[in-house]
Design a protein that fits this description.
Layout: H1 2-21, H2 27-62, H3 70-77, H4 79-96, H5 111-125, H6 136-152, H7 156-169, H8 173-187, H9 191-202, H10 206-211, H11 213-229, H12 231-236, H13 250-266, H14 275-290, H15 297-312, H16 321-331, H17 337-352, H18 362-386, H19 394-410, H20 420-423, H21 430-442, H22 446-459, H23 474-487, H24 501-548, H25 556-570, H26 577-583, H27 593-607, H28 615-630, H29 635-650, H30 656-666, H31 674-690, H32 693-696, H33 699-706, H34 716-725, H35 727-730, H36 750-763, H37 770-784, H38 788-809, H39 812-815, H40 817-865, H41 875-900, H42 913-921, H43 929-945, H44 947-963, H45 967-983, H46 985-988, H47 992-997, H48 1004-1019, H49 1030-1034, H50 1041-1055, H51 1060-1072, H52 1081-1092, H53 1098-1114, H54 1118-1130, H55 1135-1143, H56 1145-1148, H57 1155-1170, H58 1175-1204, H59 1242-1251
Helix pairs in contact: 1-2, 1-4, 2-3, 2-5, 4-6, 5-6, 6-8, 7-9, 7-11, 8-9, 8-11, 11-13, 13-14, 13-15, 15-17, 16-17, 16-24, 17-25, 18-24, 19-22, 19-23, 21-22, 22-23, 24-26, 25-26, 25-27, 28-30, 28-31, 29-31, 30-31, 31-34, 33-34, 34-37, 36-37, 36-38, 37-38, 37-40, 38-40, 40-41, 40-43, ...
GO molecular function: histone binding
Family: Belongs to the CND1 (condensin subunit 1) family.
Biased composition (Basic residues): 1244-1259
Length: 1289
């Protein structure tokens, strides 16, 4: 049927041109043709609409994922119509392109007919799939059909309304119409349609758009797409859209700002703009900058994206650079993650497209700036010195002199004084007379000059310049002569000077002056350029400090952008970029794959892609860059770098030339400094983690070159050599089986001989680097040597022999320092060797033996299986039972060796125990600080060996920790106590309060060490926190920033353990608000602000509101009232929280007379209102506010009454301990011996408590948490700050 109608309409369309051109067409024929056209088009468009509706239904069904057989259905119903749709649209377009007005008698085509023809087009565009690529031909056909209606049928007004309506209700048509309008404006000249559409959108009510989100999205998309395609026309009509910038719809604001950005990029770009265009450009930039601080985060982020595009297309004028950069740096502190992310991207774009320099170091730019500024100053001074005073012409000078000269001439006609006539005589010649008169004028002797002129007129009458018209009076004649003489108009005055010289000199002066001014302008431009570059560098440096702190944000995208930013900054030579590159290193341990990969990509771009040509040059650049990172790097930094390099090595991204260069530096074949040589060894060790054969195949070279006789010159190199060789033990080859023997070297290997000799030699030579080397050497011996205890025993014998020889000479205290440093290192390694290596080897051998037994019994088991059908246990069950029992037996064997053998009289260690105890028990006799610190550390390590020895010497250890006057001793013992708390928790548990007491140590280094140790123990659930965690909270107000950082890190990690901070908050508030705690009120507020930032759940907030209200009943002082109310003010109160306040109003009603308490509750209500509340909740808030105000006023009235007339005494506030500083007073070291009585064990204390429990006089209400976790076997949820940076010694 469609084909029939198509044929009919097509035939009629072919006949119409001849009919329309026939001027003799009768009215009846014209009406017949018109009716036929209307009927054919009506039927054809009706069929098109029907088929199009069916197609839309099919499109919706195709989008339904649950429908079956959609392929067959779509093929049968839609494909045929899609094939016929384009020819029909072309036919209708052909019809509309004819001059159909002739059928209407030369009048306009009926609007109903045009609407009939175009209605099908609009209905086709309503199909949600019309934007797909496969419908491109259909879209083009519809576009040309509508264009024909617009050009030939006056469809402008109807099209404007229809397009705006469809864009509002069908979001998918916005890009289609934007492309169509762009085509109509470019190819059909319909530019006015753009203005009509934008004016129609601009006239929409902003309040209505704020309520209709779908319509706003369509308008926004249409404006943005239109600005991208025809920005010049959008610019001409931009004014009609500007009112929406003040509307509530952020989507419309984004669209209009995006249109402005497109105009700036495509139209208002370049240096050749006219003045009006420059003004428009600056206004648009001002609007964009204003919306960087928009109230909506999506607008702020969008504007930053637009500025990024503007900067990338170099459309931002240099004069606007500084202001936009400042705005971007300011947005780095934005609360919205997406805004921060886009601010970082904008700063990166500024760096990549900056017009200043490829190197943006402040130090490099400062010196040239100062130099050029000094040069500019000199040029300006030179111009001022050579600058001639303003040139005054003789005529101007004469006008200034004329009043005085006229007065002098008038005096000539007055009686003269006696003798004056004889003084002034006229010269013999005219020339000399003229010179005489001119000289008198220069000397400002006007009266004498006038008198002399009068005489010259009489004597030289008729000669130049003394000629005057006879009709003038004498006064005028004298003035005329004087004027001619002064202005030089006399012909004979300058007859000797060539007439052209003066003018040529003036021309040269003018040219020279112009050159000077040009150079001055160039210099000013250069100084301004350098100043802008310097200011830009300063802003980038400021941004670096802010972005470096964002690397540990919770948002993965922000962290990735920060990493990319530092990669960009590093390419521009900013010195502070190296700090950011180092700071991103720990992120290699991130659990987020995206962050870890971003770190690897960053280091891959920075170090694995140098710009050098040859492989050798690239290797040198890589080694040099990595060596710079390791300069003064911490252990954590080095371990992070090791993880990155091992990843690169495993992926074969580090070329063999790098390894070759490192070996050349280590063997000194390639000249390098000692620092570079040490860095080469460290890099080899890092690479060996990925490929152990790098070290294994060159072990002899490491030993001979690294542990040679020169090792005593600097023990840092042999220490690093030991660390590198230890990689052979920690990185077994992947080919080895699970139960294969561990890699060990024979006892007579030259490695251990060199180590023994180097350690023994260094014992007698005092060096601060020998002790770390000795510890690394002992560790390496126990890791790799067969019979390690024999090697270490030989080292101990040699060192002891040297110590005895020195004792015989002199210097007793210094001679005793090193022996027990060696002994304690050996003792601890011996324990680790027994519990790790020996235990693992016993288990390995047992498993091998069990496997052999299992194989032998397999045959007999198969034979007996047919006969035996009873309930016999299988071999796997027997092996499992045997394995579990054997594990316990082996562990018990190791424990018994440590307890009974290592420190008994037969073992070598026992010889050092009395010496250590003597030094520790006599601090007055052995006062050397290094000796005392070493002895204290040795005591702690010896306690790690045996629980019996630990139990008997814990009192000595904690007494030294409290009473020692040496901070080093106290720090060492805190670390030792932390290790003991993990190894023997039941023994150390009674002494926990003494560990917490060190958090109030007067020495900052001791407090910091105690904070680190307690952080480790608490997060590992090794010590109790109930009742004592407030000591950690008090570190948040410590004067030392490092200690504050430790406390912040502790609570940050604690917040990751579920409700830990919430559970501890009541206990912390109770202790810190106590009058005897020593915490000032302002300091308490600082602590609480930090802790309450971790309370984010509504249930936690509601529970805390109730608990804090109940706490008002037990509070004793005004200070506690204020503290509790301040805590309430810190909570984000919800509707339920407000109900809790209302329910517990009686708890704090009588405390509202205190202005501070009342103000806190007012703050709570104000914050609640700002959050936006429902009408019914608003009534509840107003009711509560009235009650608060009434109680507050009633309390004030009663107070005034008491003060005025009542004799009732006011309650006396409790006496408080005077506080001298914001931090609590340090714990006094002068404690009595009774303070260090060994506490009773937990079992004995519980038994005594059950035998006799004294009666309580009064019930004390305590402020406890909901959830108490008393279990000591909880899982450790935190890995210490960086891997390898634990607190174990």
């Amino acid at each position: 049927m469609t084909y029939c109608f198509f044929s009919v309409v097509s035939h009629h369309s072919n006949e119409l041109p001849a009919i329309l051109s026939d001027s003799g067409l009768s009215h009846a024929d014209r009406a017949a043709h018109l009716n036929a056209l209307k009927m054919n088009c009506y039927l054809l468009t009706g069929l098109m609409d029907a088929f199009e509706m069916e197609t839309c239904k099919n499109s919706c069904l195709e989008a339904d994922p649950g429908r079956k057989n959609k392929k067959n259905h779509a093929k049968t119903s839609g494909s045929l119509w899609e094939e016929e749709r384009e020819p029909l649209l072309r036919l209708l377009t052909q019809l509309l392109q004819l001059d159909l007005r002739q059928l209407w008698g030369g009048l306009a085509v009926e609007e109903e007919f045009v609407s009939l023809m175009t209605g099908s087009c609009y209905r086709i565009l309503e199909n949600p799939s019309i934007g797909l690529q496969r419908y491109r031909v259909t879209r083009e056909a519809v576009t040309h059909l509508l264009a024909a209606a617009l050009v030939h049928c006056d469809h402008m007004f109807s099209a404007t309304l229809k397009i705006t309506q469809m864009v509002q209700h069908f979001e998918h048509v916005a890009p289609v119409f934007a492309q169509a309008v762009s085509l109509w404006a470019k190819e059909y000249g319909l530019k006015s349609l753009v203005g009509e559409l934008l004016r129609e959108i601009g006239q929409k009510c902003p309040q209505d758009l704020a309520r209709e989100a779908s319509g706003v999205k369509g308008y926004a998309t249409f404006i943005s797409e239109l600005a991208e395609q025809i920005p010049a026309l959008v610019l001409a009509n931009m004014s009609v859209l500007l009112p929406h910038l003040d509307g509530e719809s952020y989507t419309m604001r984004n669209a209009i700002l995006a249109a402005m950005a497109e105009v700036l990029v495509q139209v208002l770009n370049g240096d050749q703009l006219e003045k009006a265009a420059r003004g428009t450009r600056d206004k648009f930039l001002d609007v964009l900058q204003a919306h960087v601080c928009d109230v909506h985060s999506f607008v702020r982020s969008r504007v930053l994206q637009l500025f990024t595009r503007i900067v990338q297309h170099k459309a931002l004028p240099l004069t606007q650079f500084q202001s936009v950069v400042s705005l971007a740096v300011g947005r780095l502190k934005d609360k919205s993650v997406i805004v921060v992310k886009n601010a970082i991207q904008l700063l990166a774009a500024f760096l990549s497209n900056n017009p200043f320099s490829s190197k943006l170091s402040c130090a490099d730019l400062d010196k040239p700036l100062e130099k050029e500024m000094q040069k500019l100053k000199e040029m300006r001074d030179r111009c001022r010195s050579t600058e001639v005073a303003p040139v005054i012409t003789p005529e101007e000078e004469w006008e200034a002199m004329l009043p005085e000269i006229r007065a002098a001439v008038q005096q000539l006609f007055q009686p003269l004084q006696k003798g004056e006539e004889e003084v002034l005589e006229v010269e013999e010649t005219v020339e000399r007379t003229v010179e005489q008169i001119t000289g008198l004028l220069k000397k400002l002797n006007y009266k004498s000059a006038a008198r002399l002129t009068q005489k010259a007129l009489c004597r030289f009458q008729g000669k130049e310049p003394f000629i005057g018209p006879g009709e003038e009076n004498e006064e005028a004649t004298i003035l005329g002569v004087l004027k001619r003489l002064h202005t030089g108009s006399c012909p004979g005055e300058n007859s000797e000077d060539p007439p052209g010289d003066n003018s040529s000199d003036k021309i040269e002066e003018v040219v020279q002056e112009e050159q000077t001014q040009t150079e001055l302008v160039k210099q000013e431009m250069l100084v301004q350029y350098l100043q802008d570059a310097y200011n830009f560098s300063v802003k980038i440096t400021e941004a670096l400090n802010l972005i470096s702190k964002m690397m540990y944000e919770n948002s993965v995208s922000v962290v990735q952008e920060a990493i990319e930013f530092f990669v960009t900054v590093s390419q521009f030579g900013v010195p502070q970029a190296l700090l950011g590159v180092r700071r991103m290193l720990p992120l290699i341990w991130s659990k987020e794959p995206g962050i870890k990969e971003a770190v690897l990509n960053a280091y891959r771009q920075l170090y694995l892609s140098p710009s050098e040509d040859s492989e050798r040059a690239k290797a040198q650049a890589l080694v040099h860059s990595l060596s710079l990172i390791m300069v003064d790097a911490s252990l954590g930094t080095i371990q992070c770098l090791e993880e990155i390099i091992s990843e690169f090595v495993q992926k074969d991204e580090i070329k063999p030339a790098v390894t070759q260069l490192l070996w050349e530096r280590f063997t000194e074949k390639s000249p390098c400094s000692p620092l570079e040589r040490r860095a080469a060894v460290m890099l080899l060790g890092m690479m060996a983690r990925g490929k152990p054969e790098i070290i294994g195949s060159n072990l002899d070279i490491l030993v001979t070159m690294g542990l040679s006789e020169k090792a005593c010159e600097d023990y840092r190199l042999p220490q690093e050599v030991c660390n590198v060789i230890s990689k052979l033990a920690s990185n077994p080859k992947p080919a080895l089986e699970k139960n294969s023997a561990p890699f060990r070297l024979p006892q007579d290997h030259m490695l251990f001989g060199c180590l023994s000799e180097t350690v023994s030699k260094g014992f007698a030579q005092p060096s601060s680097h020998w002790i770390p080397f000795m510890e690394s050497a002992v560790t390496l011996i126990y890791q790799l040597a067969e019979g390690a205890e024999e090697i270490c025993a030989d080292i101990l014998h040699k060192c002891s022999q040297q110590a005895l020889e020195k004792l015989q000479e002199a210097d007793e205290q210094k001679a005793e320092d090193s022996p027990h440093r060696v002994s304690d290192g050996v003792a601890l390694q011996q324990v680790a060797y027994l519990e790790v290596s020996v235990s693992a080897e016993l288990r390995r051998r047992r498993i091998l033996k069990e496997e052999k037994t299992k194989k032998k019994s397999d045959t007999s088991t198969r034979k007996q299986r047919a006969r035996s059908t009873g309930n016999e246990t299988t071999m796997e069950e027997e092996l499992g039972l045997v394995g579990a029992t054997a594990d316990d037996t082996e562990a018990e064997l190791i424990r018994s060796i440590c307890e009974t053998e290592l420190l008994d009289g037969k073992h070598l260690f026992s010889a050092f125990v009395p010496l250590v105890l003597k030094i520790c028990n006599n601090p007055g006799l052995y006062s050397d600080s290094a000796l005392s610190a070493a002895a204290a550390l040795t005591l702690g390590k010896l306690c790690m060996v045996s629980s019996e020895f630990c139990d008997s010497h814990l009192r000595l250890l904690f007494t030294m920790m409290e009473k020692s006057t040496l901070p080093g001793v106290r720090s060492n013992l805190i670390i030792a106590a932390g290790d003991l708390a993990i190894r023997f928790p039941n023994l150390v548990e009674p002494w926990t309060s003494h560990l917490y007491a060190r958090l109030r140590d007067p020495c900052p280094s001791v407090r910091q060490t105690a904070g680190l140790v307690m952080t480790h123990l608490i997060l590992k659930d090794m010590v109790k926190v109930k009742g004592q965690v407030s000591e950690m909270a008090a570190l948040l107000i410590d004067p030392e920033e490092e200690i504050v950082g430790v406390a912040q890190n502790f609570f940050g990690e604690l917040a990751n353990k579920g409700n830990a901070v919430y559970n501890l908050l009541p206990d912390i508030i109770s202790h810190l608000s106590d009058p005897n705690s020593g915490i000032e009120e302002e300091s308490f507020h600082t602590i609480m602000r930090h802790l309450f930032s971790y309370i984010t759940k509504d249930k936690q907030t509601e529970s805390l509101v109730e608990k804090l209200c109940q706490r008002f009943r037990t509070a004793r002082t005004d200070r506690q009232y204020r503290d509790l109310s301040h805590c309430l003010a810190l909570l984000p109160i919800s509707e339920r929280g407000l109900h809790k306040l209302q329910d517990n109003y009686d708890c704090f009603a009588d405390k509202l007379q205190d202005p501070a308490v009342y103000n806190c509750f007012q703050t709570v209500l104000a914050r609640f209102r700002r959050a936006g509340v429902k009408p019914e909740t608003k009534a509840l808030a107003e009711e509560l506010e009235q009650k608060l105000s009434a109680s507050h006023n009633r309390g004030l009235d009663s107070t005034e009454a008491c003060q005025d007339g009542s004799q009732t005494p006011m309650p006396v506030p409790a006496k408080r301990k005077p506080i001298g500083s914001s931090r609590r007073q340090p714990l006094s070291p002068a404690n009595t011996d009774d303070d260090f009585v060994t506490p009773a064990s937990r079992t004995l204390r519980n038994r005594k408590r059950t035998q006799k429990r004294p009666a309580r006089k009064k019930a004390i209400i305590t402020f406890s948490s909901d959830e108490e976790n008393n279990s000591e076997d909880g899982k450790a949820l935190h890995t210490w700050a960086l891997r390898g940076e634990g607190l174990h010694i």
